[in-house]
Amino acid sequence: MKLIHKLLITNLIITLLLVLTMFSLNAITNKRMLNNVFEDIDNEAFNLIATEISQQYQQTGSIGMFIDSKALWYELINRNFHSSRLLFSPNRPKPREPRPFSLEGPPQKHMQNEGMPPPRNKPMADDFMPFEKRLSLLDAKGKILIAGNTDTEVVNEQEITHNGAVVAVLQLHANGNHVSALTQHYLNTQINISLWTAGIGLLIALLFSYLLARHFTNPISQLKEGAKALAERKFETKITVNSSDEFATLAEDFNRIATELRRFESQQSQWIMDISHELRTPLTILEGELEAINDGIIEPNQKAISSLQEEVALLSRLVNDLHKVSTLDRYSFNYQMEEIDFNTLVTLQAHKYAFKFQSKNITLNATLSEQPVIILADQNRITQVLQNILENNLRYTDEQQKVWLDLTVSKHHVFLSIEDSGPGVPDEALEKLFDRLYRTDSSRNRKTGGFGLGLAICQTIIEAHHGSIDATKSRLGGLCITLKLPLAEA
Predict the structure, then answer these.
(1) Looking at residues 166-171, what average pLDDT do you find?
(2) What's the rounded Cα separation, in Å, for the pair 42 and 35?
(3) Which of 136, 160, 226, 333 has the fewest CB atoms found within 10 Å of its own CB?
(4) What is the CATH number of the domain that holds 434?
(5) Euclidean distance between CA atoms 454 and 444, whole angstroms
């Protein structure tokens, strides 16, 4: 199953659950609320009917007219019931104005039909009983005078009294299903509306879920195709995401990775070419001199042997430097970190190289700290960095020039600047000094210079200590190498 299908199904399930939850809560709330409302209306009509029966008994001394005439009984019920319930009952007629009861003569035919409840074409519920069918009138001894439905429980009861004596009892029975017909009618209507709303909502949710899923999956598809292209070494691949969200950031990171891979591939090719060149030169010299000795052109004397040894030494130095680089890359996690005094370490190396600089008529100056500067570092590796940089100053600084060490401390870092007064390097070479096998031929030669690995080794070590190393123009006119290392936490 693809991601777009999972998103669609997830959104539809969430929408369906929300609709069902809202529908259930709405049904339960409405059922309770409407039942309470209609029960209050039934009780209000019941109390009005009981009051009017009591008043009729006090006026006439009898309630026989209700027993003898169903029309009068239903008219009494309708007159009081409709006044409270008309607005809720679509099947009820408008109430007529109340009219006084008459006991003269038998009830007329029109009188019998006038107060009768209208027939219902479609009952609202199969077991629903209309209000008039739920009323029972009993005498003081409990004998039923007007029978209602006695199969359900009595929900309201009121005694009809005269001069303190009970003359009758009016009872109201519950519906068979304990749910008001109007409540059920309203709930059925709500169910139909909710079903239509849910259907339309699901269609809308499906449409927007599809659009949203496409919005999410399109960038992912581009990233997938881009990753496939990178796996095929097509490092010129670029992807574009027209948004400002996390996908756009991810696309930028992807493009940056592609750029770095392309740059790394170019550097790797250049590195292999440079290694081949560095190896070819001494090997060519060795081959030529050995052939000359073999052909008798050069005698195998001390001078010839010294020349061969010099070329072998160059080869050994190159191999050793390459081994150092590979060892640092592979085992960078094996640095033996401990708290050391960086100020003392710099002072010690400055003293060691002071005589070498003096022998070349180069002045070595140092501005160091009077207090200990504690860093968390591998002492041997940091010493190697200082020696590589000082060796470069010793090789490439002209005689009668100066080398200056300047150590400063900030709140969280220590900075060491090692700068010389010349001859320096071209501006375009500053950013390439830390590339492996890069050499500025104008300032060094194969005999006295290195192979362009010293500063690359320094950068690897410093970055393993969470620091940085930079090359800039020196204030003295030459080159300035600046180390930045974090201080040990107190």
Answers:
(1) 87
(2) 10
(3) 333
(4) 3.30.565.10
(5) 14
